[in-house]
Specification:
The chain is of the alpha+beta class. It has one helix at residues 33-73, and strands at residues 4-7, 12-15, 19-24, 27-32. It has one domain. Bound molecules: zinc ion.
Length: 74
C-alpha cells in the first residue's frame, strides 16, 4: 500500500511517488507531477504565443512607420 497525499491542484489524492511537495504562501502542499508538467507546458505555450504576437506587432508598427515616412517624402 502506498502513501497518498491530497493534491491541491486536482482536489484529489494521488500516490506520493507521483507528487512533489512544493512551497506555497499557505505552507507546504502536495501537487502531482502531472499537473506541474501541464502548467509548465501551458506557460511555455503562452510565452511562445506572446513572443509571436510581439513580433507581429513590431512588424506592423514598422510597416506603419515606413508608410508614414513614404507619405512625408512624397
Ligand atoms: Zn493532481
Amino acid at each position: 500500500m502506498s502513501d497518498t497525499a491530497y493534491c491541491y491542484h486536482c482536489g484529489t489524492h494521488h500516490p506520493k511517488e507521483e507528487m512533489r511537495q512544493i512551497e506555497t504562501k499557505g505552507g507546504k502542499r502536495w501537487r502531482c507531477i502531472k499537473s506541474i508538467a501541464a502548467t509548465k507546458q501551458g506557460r511555455e505555450e503562452r510565452e511562445a504565443f506572446g513572443r509571436q504576437t510581439t513580433a507581429i506587432n513590431k512588424a506592423e508598427a514598422q510597416s506603419k512607420k515606413a508608410r508614414i515616412t513614404l507619405a512625408v517624402e512624397r
